[in-house]
Amino acid sequence: MCARLDAGKHMIYRFRHGIIGPLAIFWLLITVASVVLGAVAWNRFSKTIDASAQAEQLRESIDQVFSVLQDAEASQRGYLLTGKETYREAFTNADRAFPAVFERLVASARHEPAAQADVTELRRLAELELAELRQAIALRAEKAPAGLVDAASPAETNTTMDRIREIIKRRHDDRRDLLSAKGEATRREMKLVHQMTWIAGLLGVGAGVFALYFYRIDYYQERARRQLLEEKLHAEQAVREKSAFLANMSHEIRSPMNAILGFSELLEPEGLTAKQSQYVQAIRDSGAALLHLINDILDLSKLEAGKLELHPDPTDMRDSCEFLRTVFGQQAVMKSLQLQFEVSPDLPRALMLDRLRLRQVLVNLLSNAIKFTDRGYVKTRVSWRSQESGRSGTLLIDVEDTGIGIPDGQLDEVFKPFVQADSLRTAEKEGTGIGLTIVKRLTELMGGSLAVESNVGQGTVFYLRFADVPVSGRLPVGDRAAPGGAVDFNDFAPATLLVVDDNPTNRALMAGIFEKTHHLVHFANNGQEALDYLAKAKPDVVMLDIRMPVMDGRTALAEIRKQASLVSLPVIAVTASSKAGEEKELQNQFSGYIRKPFSRQTLFLALAQFLQKAAPEKGREFPDPGKDLVRTPAPPPGQAAQWQELALELRRQEGSEWPVLRDSLAVNQTRAFAHKLFMLGQAAQCGPLVTYAATLTTFADAYAISQMDLHLAAFPRLVDFIESSVSQAQLQPL
Fold first, then answer.
1. CA geometry: angle at 472 spanning 471 and 477, to 5°?
2. How many Å apart are CA 82 and CA 268, to the nearest integer?
3. 475-479: long-range pairs with CB below 8 Å, 24+
4. Packing angle between helix 667-683 and helix 657-664, nearest 10 degrees?
5. E-assigned strands of 336-386?
6. What b-and-e string marks burial along 169-189, b requiring 16 or more CB atoms within 10 Å of the CB?
7. What is the pTM of this model?
């Protein structure tokens, strides 16, 4: 019922707001039409009024001309009959007044082409009439009474006056006012304008009434919306305060839990009885589970309160996969699951990511995958999609399992806090239901996206996508050199450094620091000199002061980054400035950051991000990986069978894992390969394999790529030697 009422209100609301627009448009069209029509009608009305005035003026001028002619005619007739001079003078006055009167007539007819022809004809006739009258008066004066009869003959004069009267009558009959038939169109237009004005006015009043009605409705609705918004803001504020409280209590909650776990761990080697050890182990397991729950709740609270900060640093996803293999390997073995990791060969060695938060995301996903998978495998695929510049790309991580799956209707629900796929839960798989919520929010906080596909009974795949991940020029966090007290810059492999500083004392200090090292240091006084040097040679690291004459550090960095060959060149900002906010700005712009005054240890740590570690024994040549094999003893007595099995395993490695390492020279994978060989060699008591693996590990730790390449190339010779040693041992008599 409520749904129907809401639907009805919504329809009314849509109708109300839908009719306003057409009604306003119709009213506007009517108003515009009435205004346009009124303007046209008024224009015509004005023209009609002007024409009427001009016609009236023309009639008055014609009447004046006719009056002058009549006066002249009457004076002429009086003079002819009486011969008195007064009549003759009256005629003379009328004759003299005619030109001025006729000029006014011409002026009145200048705007009316049809009347101009009549005026021209009228002038001709009027002049003819006046000429006839003058002739008669002259004849009367010349002949005295004898000429009276001849002069008084009005035949021709009457004919001329009749024609003049016709012209005057025609002009009088040509009416141009609104009362005439010719004003009918104008009267109709004025009537239409009147009607349109009424319609527009009524619509305007109606629109005003509608607008007032809608305004009243919207006013109350807006007031209700504001009340709801205030309540929503109060609720959100309460949630934020709750989340902020939990986030601020993290230290107080975690500290006692750490004490419980720490002291229970100290109790284990104290010679406890079996039951006491069981109690202590129960305390540790329960404490660890509670700590994990607290960590999840605190992380969720920090995410809700917006207090969780990211700390990106160089991250090697291969190391992260090895970490995950170590963490979940035993759980997978206990459930007879295959724990697989597939890493793309083109994945960069170091990516700028929050390594700990990304591991937290993957730990939650793998933990769920193993928890809800009873057979098959849990697979993690890591791949890379590089951008054209090569400085960044998209990191793709897929976590796939062959577990119980998630129903379609609950794919979105599992990301909500404290929600699980209830229909598939068992007592063994109980949990808080906030793991995937943290996964989703952490992923979004890191600028990534999370999607899921699942089929009930077949498995689930979670897709993580992180776009625009920068490729780091620094070494991954796990591979950095550590100062360990008094620093020795010779712990780094020999490198070329460019120090750019306009202060000679600072340059002398840097020269003294590296004086007894195997590093080569060049100096420049300003950014322009640094660019001149970089045009000739490329150092391993540039240490660039910020404030310098000629060209400052920021400008120099911008010019360096414009050159394709120097895009990945590590440039460390070195500055004495202490402006608020500048440190973070410089850290974002430069590869590294050092604030003056700095210690040797600070400088060491800054360079450790970019320089490789030196070989363990400086000054000593790396051994030839295969030259001493012939002097290696045969298998110890009783170990020939183990060496034979070892040789078979090594041949399998030679055909599977070794070719990939030989072609890619991936350091972390090589290190893992060396560790595997070391364990195999120790198990079979194979000295040559143990030595080979240890040396290969040394090269991988030092990032000595060329030596690592040579040592990997010697692996088939090592396998050949082990097989030949086994054959010789089998041929010797017992």
1. 130
2. 167
3. 475/314, 475/350, 475/608, 475/609, 475/610, 475/612, 475/703, 476/314, 476/315, 476/316, 476/319, 476/349, 476/350, 477/313, 477/314, 477/315, 477/355, 478/316, 478/319, 479/316, 479/667, 479/701, 479/703
4. 140
5. 338-343, 351-353, 377-386
6. eebeebbbeeeeeebeebeeb
7. 0.40
pLDDT digits (tens, 9 = 90+) for 156-200: 556 777 777 777 777 777 665 555 555 566 667 667 666 667 776
Q: Taking the alpha carbons of 601, 602, 605, 607 in that order, is the dihedral positive or negative?
A: negative
Instruction: Region of 637 please: left (phi>0), alpha (psi -120 to 50) or beta.
Output: beta
Rg (CA), the chain: 55
User: Tokens for 120?
Assistant: 């021209």
462 forms beta bridges with 399, 452
CA–CA separation, 614 vs 491, rounded Å?
5
- Are 175 and 55 in contact by the 8 Å Cβ rule? The answer is yes
- The H-assigned helical ranges of 446-535 are 504-513, 527-534
Give me the mean pLDDT over the 575-604 stretch.
74
Query: Tell me: the pLDDT tens digits for 394-450?
Result: 999 999 999 998 887 777 667 765 455 544 444 344 444 567 888 888 898 899 999
Cα–Cα distance, 145 to 133 (Å, whole number): 17
Instruction: Please report how the helices 715-731 and 705-713 are oriented relative to each other, as an axis angle in degrees rounded to 10.
Output: 30
End-to-end CA distance of the chain, in Å? 97
Question: Could you identify the residue written with the tokens 């577990």?
Answer: 403
Max intra-chain CA distance, the chain? 195
The encoded tokens of residue 650 equal 């090594």
> Residues 6 or more apart from 215 whose CB is under 8 A from it?
none
Give residue 33's identity as a one-letter amino acid code: A
- For the record, the structure tokens of 350 come out as 């170091």
Residue 146 neighbours by CB under 8 Å, 6+ apart: none
